[in-house]
Amino acid sequence: MADLQDDIPTTTEVGEDDILPDAPPPVPASLGRGYTPAEQPDTDLLARARTLLAEHPVADGYSGLPWALRHLPWYDLELGEAAVDTDMPRLREGHVGALFWSLHLPEGPGGGCAVAAALEQLDLVRTVIEAHPEGLRLVRTAGQIIDARNRGRVAVVLGPAPGAALEDSLGILRVLRDLGLRVLTLAGTAWAGASGLTRFGEEVVREMNRLGVLADVTGASPATVERTVALSKTPILCTRSAARALRPHPANLPDELLVALGRAKGLCMVPLTAEQTGPTVPDVADHLDHVRDVAGPECVGLSGTYDSGVVHPRDLADASRYPHLIAELLRRGWSETELSLLTWGNVQRVLRSADFTARAAQHRRDASTVRIGDLDTL
């Protein structure tokens, strides 16, 4: 069951009336949604994509499903749920092996206490997973993701959570980590602003490294991204960033930051949203090509951003459509090795790195008791 809440707008797919101003004109339906005749994937490519995904499933870097479910009076993800973009039949059809579940916080004066809102989201996540034991499994480590996959479950990784959930307390960060949090978004906090990380912000990143919590710099200022890349002992994430050179969205990364991210072996997870990547499958593939070429094949991943209220490209309307994207990349000449890193391997590498660094750091460094007022005043 879910709490009785007002309905939220359903996520949509770009249609002929929704084409963005700089998008190409729509093609006839007979040619396939979002494709030109030369780009239309054939059945052989789709079959190859499905075979590859069966071996290297998708680790999806951002899902808004928990927040979407809290507005439904009833749902069943195992049988299928038309009110959301994500359910077990579509996850299986899309060959999704792992999902990063966003812990969304309400905005505005009615949002209430950030800590309480984060804990309520955690409670909802556990309730959803317990209600679907044959399909979902809450995981904390890269090894547990592999175990969940071997048991036929979709692994659920907690995060990203907004940095506001900490309420400037490293103690709260440790509590959230004990409850399973693995990714924290730095943007939108007093300690990660336009000028970069404050001294307290640097202490937050150090404590995140000690705990194995990954830093997400999506939407952060260039100064914050650069300082976090330099300071963090583990790779950092951009859970919803594409290439600004192709589309000037504020959350997309310019090439100089993509280069820095690549050198630090971080991970840019390209979102499947019309606003950030464009209204067609080839548009999304263009961003994946660009990030791979600039940052390297070990630094590009996927972020479905399903159930987050955004508009998706044509033919990528829900979590079942990943084979169509992989077929397009196969058509462009991506190797099996590159695709295996894109879908699964890069996320595994980043999580394993965070786990290893945390184990080592906990032998050298005690839990930080620093407060924001101790460092960022005067």
UniProtKB/TrEMBL annotation:
Region (Disordered): 1-40
The organism's place on the tree of life at top rank: Bacteria
Residue ranges the record marks as coiled coil: none
Classification via InterPro entries: Metal_Hydrolase, Pept_M19
Name of this chain's protein: Dipeptidase
